[in-house]
Amino acid sequence: MTPALPDGYRLVRVPLSRNDEFREVDHLAFGYEPDPETVAQVPDYIEWDRASGVEAPDGSLAAVHASFDFELPVPGAAPVECAGLTWVGTRPDQRRRGLLSAMIADHFAHCQERGEPVSALYAAESSIYGRFGYGSAADELRVTVQRGAALRDVPGSEDLVVRFAKLDAGAHGALVERVHEAAGRGRPGWIRRSTDTLRATALADPPAWRQGGEPLRLASVHDADGEPRAYALLRRKEEWVDNIPKTKVVVRESAAVDAAAAHRLWSFLLDMDLTASVQSGPLPVDDRVRSLLVDARDTAPKITDNVWVRLVDLPAALAARRYSGPLDVVLDVADTRLPANAGRWRLTTGEVGPDGAYDLQATRTEDDADLALDVRELGAAYLGGRSLAAFADAGLVEERRTGALQAASAAFAWPLAPLCTWGF
Ligand SMILES: CC(=O)SCCNC(=O)CCNC(=O)[C@H](O)C(C)(C)COP(=O)(O)OP(=O)(O)OC[C@H]1O[C@@H](n2cnc3c(N)ncnc32)[C@H](O)[C@@H]1OP(=O)(O)O
């Protein structure tokens, strides 16, 4: 069901020629205005063939959104085609008239046309997107570690060397993307930057973004052949208290291909002269540093929601990932926004693969349901980082056949916690 727009309003595609208007809506919606230096230094990373909006009766843009053509890494399988919803904004003088609701319906229709079974997003406010069937599918962890904090030993760490330089996007871009890709292998949610402009934006560093810190630096870890194994994009914020240096190291993003590289990187970060602490970038909740720190309690851990997932084509999306255990259950799915997903589905796994994981098929059935849930909870569990049993415990999944919840929770779970390392 497509929500109605107010009289005279209409959904439109927004071409590059309306870039200024599109951005004006965004600035008004989010309450900021980039200075000319920032505009000049941050690439235009909108994919203009995927930008849309709502026109008011006078032809002006009242609301906008766009999406990215992503591949979303899922548990145990090749990434699934995914529309990364972004740049969502309604002008403050046009809000609460159903413009976002209409844009989301339009977005889902475009996903279906393009054959994208899944959509993902970062939520500006976490109360917005559940109503549209998006579920919070991953958490991100940030820690602040005191200088000199001890790490448990990892063999091979001492054989690696660290290089430290002013970030040069041209010279370092390939290193960052190569390590980022290798570090994320097997980790659900680890979306790669899919275009040159997104890759360039990840390294953009206009002065307005520095919040009093130095320009971005790159700390990179290399093996004996010079091959990069880990990196951190960071800046130091100089601070002195009573003549004592208390500079903070603030990491924008870091990644490491293995434990030795992570150990070497953190050893370097925790031993920088004049500093007092290291604030991490977004980490998976099971990040190595939690296991390696001798005193992991004193790290002021903060957890927030990371990427949100929406199953647009339920059977295709569920078949695109793999599962940790055998399963034969009937789900009764509620989905008011996309009725084609609603109703009863039998989920059946096949033979176990050599990696211990299972393929799965979702087919329509008239059989009685074993579990009843909203598509939002299915999206939340999709990357393997949320427990269906925990949702049941919160009253959000109903078990109608004893044992079905245990089996489904075990099958949907995945050994590595999901994470996307960058907001889009
Ligand atoms: C993926 C991303 O890009 S995240 C970025 C989202 N953008 C922002 O946060 C920018 C500032 N906010 C805005 O521009 C607007 O308030 C938007 C885009 C969040 C909502 O746009 P609107 O056109 O006002 O939404 P619309 O009128 O369709 O409301 C749809 C429903 O969402 C609810 N809703 C809208 N905004 C919010 C919010 N911020 N928090 C909680 N609920 C909200 C409405 O109350 C309405 O609920 P209902 O269906 O129960 O009646």
From TrEMBL:
Annotated Enhanced intracellular survival protein domain residues: 314-420
Q: How does it assemble?
A: Homohexamer; trimer of dimers.
Q: State the protein's name.
A: GNAT family N-acetyltransferase
Give a GO molecular function annotation for the protein. acyltransferase activity
As recorded in UniProt, its EC number(s) are 2.3.1.-
- The positions annotated for binding acetyl-CoA are R96, R97, G98, L99, L100, S101
- Family designation: Belongs to the acetyltransferase Eis family.
Q: Which organism is it from?
A: Cellulomonas chengniuliangii
Q: Known InterPro entries for this protein?
A: Acetyltransf_17, Acetyltransferase_Eis, Acyl_CoA_acyltransferase, Eis_dom, NAcTrfase_Eis, SCP2_sterol-bd_dom_sf
Q: What positions constitute the catalytic site?
A: Y129 (proton donor), F424 (proton acceptor)
- Domain (Eis-like acetyltransferase): give its ranges: 189-310
Keywords, sorted A to Z: Acyltransferase, Transferase
